[in-house]
Request: fold
Amino acid sequence: MLPAAAVDGAGAAGSTPPLFTAVYGLEWHGLTAGYSTLSLTEPSPGRYVYSSVSRARGVVRLVFPDPISERSTFRIEHGRIEPLDYEEDDGAGRQNQNVALQFDWKAMEVRGNAGTKNVAQPLETGTQDPMSVQIALMRELTAGRSPTRFMLFDKTEAAEYHYTREGSVALDTPLGRLDTVVYRSDRPDSDRVMRFWLAPTLGYLPVRAERKRHGKTEFELRIRELTPPHLSLRHGGPPSPGASAEPHDLS
Reply:
């Protein structure tokens, strides 16, 4: 999931992360809201793109008519994830809330814009963006380490997020019954809490996630389909039982 970056231990196992596409059902404030697609690709050698695209369905589409997307371009340098570019697009109706950041590791500075605000902030070694931190977490767990905190640059500034392992749970999913470890992510000065159910046999891919605010669930994601490009995310193993060859349009 490193000096100020916030992990106990340095580096992570493996030089290249496994590529995948995963489709999740999305619930928003208790409503079946649509679906979200997470994908990790390598469009050029050593440059990875981790993206999330959420599409609403039914009445929720009246509130969010356009897809909502996040995208992180990163590299692996000195055994750690280094974000290069981060983009957040809330759709045509919310362009004044979009985020575009560039991580300059030579100048050690983050530049760009978050909504109507210009961003120019110092960059600490190991800092992640809101998407790359998920890959960093997966890599740390795969390496046998238990991360306790990450420095995360979100919109206009960096803040420390705490990561706490809350236990182990077996979940019934469309991919079969999976053992998971549960991690909580929060910031000391925020009332929002994220939880992830991470499957070790899938390289600690999240198979469920939720965000709560003031103790109430804002949204929840549950895995529907998984597409490994070559092999299962289990190192060298066969595809997971029930894993789909192609994600389907769930709208």
